[in-house]
Write a structure and sequence with these properties.
By secondary structure, the protein is an alpha+beta fold. The protein has one domain. The chain has six helices and five strands; from the N terminus they run H-E-H-E-E-H-H-H-H-E-E. It has a three-stranded antiparallel beta sheet. Helix 2 packs across helix 4 (103-124), helix 4 (103-124) packs antiparallel against helix 6 (151-185) and helix 5 runs antiparallel to helix 6. The radius of gyration is 21 Å and the shape is globular.
Length: 208
C-alpha cells in the first residue's frame, strides 16, 4: 500500500470512530498534514491545534469534530459524493491515490498548512525558556572556567551559545511574521487563545 493510501486509511478510521483526530507522521512534510487536515474537515472536523512531543519535537496535529450546521452540511455532502473513501478510492479534494490537492482544493490546503506551520513555530520558540538559557549558560561557563582555568574554550562558548539561541529566536520570529502576513492576506484574524498564545482564526465558513 502506498504511503498516501496508508495515511488516508488511518485518517478515515479515526473520522469514523472518534471526535478528535490526531495526525502523527514523524517524517511527513507540512503539505501532507495540510492535505490530511483538509480531508478531515470535509467530513465534519476542524483544525484545532498542534503539539510538539518528546525530545525530537514530533509534530502532533489535532482536529475536533465541528458541530456547526454548515460543517455538518459539508460533511453530509461529501459522504454522499464520496461514500467509500480509502485506499484506491477517491477522497475529497485530492487526486486519486495521492495527497496532492486538485486545483479547486489547493488554496484551502495551503491555508491549513500555513496555520499548522505558524502554530508549530510558536510551539518551538519558547521565548521565556530560550531567554533563560541564553543567560544561564554564560554564567555556567564562566563558573566552570574559573574552577578549571580553561578560559579560552569556555569563554568562547560563553559568547557563542547565547548568540546562537538569540539568533534562533530571531529567525523563528521572522518566519512567523511572514506566515502571519499570508494568513492576514487570506482573511484570517489574530486572536490569543486561553494560554495567551497568538493564534489565527479563519473566516467562517472556511473551505468549500
Amino acid at each position: 500500500m502506498a504511503v498516501a493510501d496508508r495515511h488516508i486509511s488511518a485518517l478515515m478510521r479515526q473520522i469514523a470512530s472518534q471526535d478528535t483526530v490526531e495526525l502523527i507522521h514523524p517524517f511527513a512534510e507540512w503539505q501532507t498534514f495540510g492535505a490530511l487536515a483538509y480531508i478531515a474537515e470535509c467530513y465534519g472536523f476542524r483544525y484545532a491545534d498542534i503539539r510538539l512531543v518528546g525530545k525530537h519535537k514530533i509534530v502532533h496535529v489535532y482536529l475536533v469534530r465541528d458541530p456547526s450546521p454548515w460543517a455538518q452540511q459539508r460533511a453530509a455532502a461529501n459522504r454522499a459524493a464520496f461514500p467509500d473513501p480509502g485506499p484506491g478510492r477517491p477522497v475529497p479534494g485530492m487526486y486519486l491515490g495521492s495527497l496532492t490537492p486538485v486545483p479547486q482544493a489547493q488554496a484551502d490546503v495551503d491555508l491549513i498548512t500555513t496555520l499548522i506551520k505558524y502554530d508549530a513555530l510558536g510551539a518551538a520558540a519558547n521565548r521565556k525558556q530560550l531567554m533563560t538559557m541564553a543567560w544561564a549558560f554564560p554564567l555556567l561557563f564562566l563558573l566552570v572556567a574559573v574552577v578549571t582555568g580553561k578560559y579560552a574554550v569556555l569563554l568562547t562558548l560563553t559568547v557563542l551559545i547565547p548568540a546562537f539561541l538569540l539568533g534562533a529566536l530571531r529567525l523563528n520570529a521572522m518566519r512567523r511574521a511572514k506566515l502571519a502576513e499570508r494568513l492576514t492576506a487570506a482573511g484570517c484574524t489574530p486572536q490569543p487563545d486561553e494560554a495567551g498564545r497568538e493564534r489565527f482564526v479563519r473566516p467562517v465558513p472556511y473551505g468549500v
